[in-house]
Amino acid sequence: MPKTVYTFFVVGGAMFALLTTLNFNIGMLCYPVAKACEDGWLPKQIAKKNEKYGSFPYILLIFYLIGIVPIIIGLDLNTVANSTVILFTIIRMVIAMAALNLPKKLPELWNKSAFHVSDTKLKVVCALSIIIALLSVVILLVSTSLPQIIGNIVILIISVIAAFAMNSKVHLKPSYTEK
């Protein structure tokens, strides 16, 4: 294979793999945010759907603005990526902690759920998830600058305060997938 064609396939293949993954993620991020609006965590107007295309233009605009701000202010891509991974890993750790309480909080739904496992399996999987998340965050923090660590802590604190402030306005409708 000629060198130029080889380079095109190697670079182009990696580039298109990243682009399709990013495109998918941008499209799929709308649904959890729309559900958060429906539950009351965020203003319902944000989740207004475009009738013609069925998309969420305000949510997409918000993600666009969130994505373009680091570019405009000149943040390094590694800084953005590290911060994103750290914060999402912490969220996954919180989800694993919450999953531990499913059998106690929603016993009827938990028993009917397609994802139902024994209490022992649930505890083992959640404990492993929490440990792996903690290790991941620690490893990422070792290679992170102090201003970035402080920024992540500030974002996390603001998120927790906002969650507690919005908690009284939230009306969750438990849902599950049956066996």
Could you please describe the fold and organization of this structure?
The structure is a single chain. The protein is mainly α and 179 residues long. It has helices spanning 3-39, 57-73, 77-100, 102-105, 107-112, 119-142, 146-166. Helix 3 packs antiparallel against helix 6 (119-142) and helix 3 (77-100) packs across helix 7. The longest helix has 37 residues, at 3-39. The termini are far apart.
Secondary-structure blueprint of this entry?
Elements (H helix, E strand, L loop, with lengths): L2 H37 L17 H17 L3 H24 L1 H4 L1 H6 L6 H24 L3 H21 L13
Brief rundown of the structure:
The protein is 74% helix and 0% strand. By secondary structure, the chain is mainly α.
Estimate the helix proportion, in percent: over 70%
- Report, as a whole number of angstroms, the end-to-end distance: 51 Å
Structural class, from secondary structure content?
A: mainly alpha
Shape: globular
Described by strand count, sense and barrel closure, the largest sheet is: none
Task: Output the number of helix runs.
Answer: 7
Q: Could you name the ranges where pLDDT drops below 50 across 5 or more consecutive residues?
A: none
Strand segment tally? 0
Strand content: under 5%
Order of helices and strands: HHHHHHH
Rg, nearest Å? 20 Å
Mean pLDDT: 87
